Amino acid sequence: MNPSFGQRHQTALHACHECDLLQYAPHSDVQNVACCRCGGLLHRARGYQPQTSLALVVAGLFVFTLANVFPVVGLEAGGVRTATTLLGTASQLMRQDMLPVAMLVLFTGVLLPGIELLALLYLLLPLTLGRAPRGFPKVMRLIQMVHPWGMVEVFLLGVLVSLVKLAHLAQVHPGIGLWSFFALIILLATSASRFDAALLWERYQSCRATH
Fold first, then answer.
1. Closest by Cα among 121, 122, 119 to 144
2. Which of 101, 189, 201 is nearest to 150 (CA)?
3. Is the alpha carbon torsion for 168, 169, 172, 178 positive or negative?
């Protein structure tokens, strides 16, 4: 049986991220709300603070810049030392007629993570200041589309495997870019764990109602 009008006013329709079951879940200020079928998290308690997520995104943008400006790793053999950035790696791949690999590195390691961080900044900064950002629905869809394709951790795993294989051929010198990528992975994972579309929509609607 469908809930009455009064019940609908106090509840919201949610799709479970685990089993896709559509169900009405009450908004709770003190506890999380779980799916009635699989127990997956439907709705977090209203302790959400956008400024915390904003701080993570700003820190992520900072280390993302460091990761792309400074060399990821340096190699020294026969008295000759070479070092390159991620963008430099993509450029070298293009020069060696490996365009598909270069584009894959560029998109999954640089472009898409950067777009995701900038889109989150575009949403969170106005919401933290109590303002509704323009184009909120479109930017939310963009984040949902881009997030699965950001593969910084996969790139870093490939770098580590390559370094292990090169260790017996040359001296390996980890660069600032490599440590920045480690920090970026942690910040992206923490930011993703705090990302809740339902709570952002509530904040957005609240900001629209007050302006």
1. 119
2. 189
3. negative
Asked whether the beta carbons of 5 and 21 are under 8 A apart, the reply is no
pLDDT band at 104 (very low <50, low <70, confident <90, very high): confident
Would the pTM count as exceeding 0.90?
A: no
Q: Any idea which residue has 């977090």 for tokens? A: 44
* Residue 24 parent element (H or E): strand 22-26
Residue 97 exposed, middle or buried by CB count within 10 Å (0-12, 13-18, 19+): exposed
Distance between CA 144 and CA 179 in Å, rounded? Answer: 27
Segment 116-160, tens digit of pLDDT = 999 999 999 998 888 889 999 999 999 888 888 877 777 777 777
For tokens 């939310």, name the residue. Answer: 140
The answer to whether the beta carbons of residues 109 and 151 sit under 8 Å apart is: yes
CB atoms closer than 10 angstroms to residue 39: 11
Distance CA 115, CA 56 (A): 15
pLDDT at 10: 47
Q: How many residues in the chain?
A: 211
Residue 165, Cα to own-chain centre: how many angstroms?
30
